[in-house]
Amino acid sequence: QGAPDLTGFVIRVPRPDPRQVQPTRDELDRLMHCPDLALRFLIHCGAEAGLRFATAIALRPCDVQGSYVRTTTKRGSTTNVPVSPGLARVLMAMPANTPTNSTERIVDILNTRPVRSSTTFQDRWTAWNKQCGVRKELRCHERRLGRERRIWKATGDLRNAQSILGHKSLA
Question: What is the chain's Cα-based Rg?
Fold first, then answer.
């Protein structure tokens, strides 16, 4: 009765294990000395603020509110992220005449001209990784996860570490 059992015909695609690559403290230190201010800003946003690449690239001076940056996550929720000392130093490199209510992207201001494609930064990231002698398999996203893992190891509070990354649930 009912439909025939077709489970034998279903192709199962193996899921890869989660990436276990994370930057060492030494690798992060080398990466954060990037002379390209726009790329350094993105590195600090991921490594110190735990922001996704797309979230960081969209930040504007009007999103910086004192010691916090107001961000919108990929699911559309708004959160305030503390500005680290390293991130504050990069933000101070913006021209002094930049209006605090400017809606121009910070990466465009630091780059001194608009960046048309996020692949521009991916290419810069790859070149800077190579120049720093950082492992080739270390991707831009791992800067973000390295921070979460350090917080989790220090506090043992997985929920807190996940919330810093903007995750709503542990699932």
Answer: 19
Render pLDDT for 97-126 as a digit per residue (tens, 0 to 9).
999 999 999 999 999 888 887 788 888 888
If you search the block for the tokens 């010691």, which residue do you land on? 67
Instruction: Catalogue the long-range contacts made by 131-139 (C-beta closer than 8 Å, 24 or more residues apart).
Output: 132/27, 132/30, 132/31, 133/30, 134/23, 134/27, 134/30, 134/31, 135/21, 135/27, 137/21, 138/21, 138/23, 138/27, 139/19, 139/21
CA pair distance 144, 157, nearest whole angstrom: 17
Amino acid at 15: R
The end-to-end CA distance of the chain, in Å, is: 36
pTM of the model: 0.76
- Strands 64-65 and 68-72 come out as antiparallel
For 41, the token pair is 């800003």
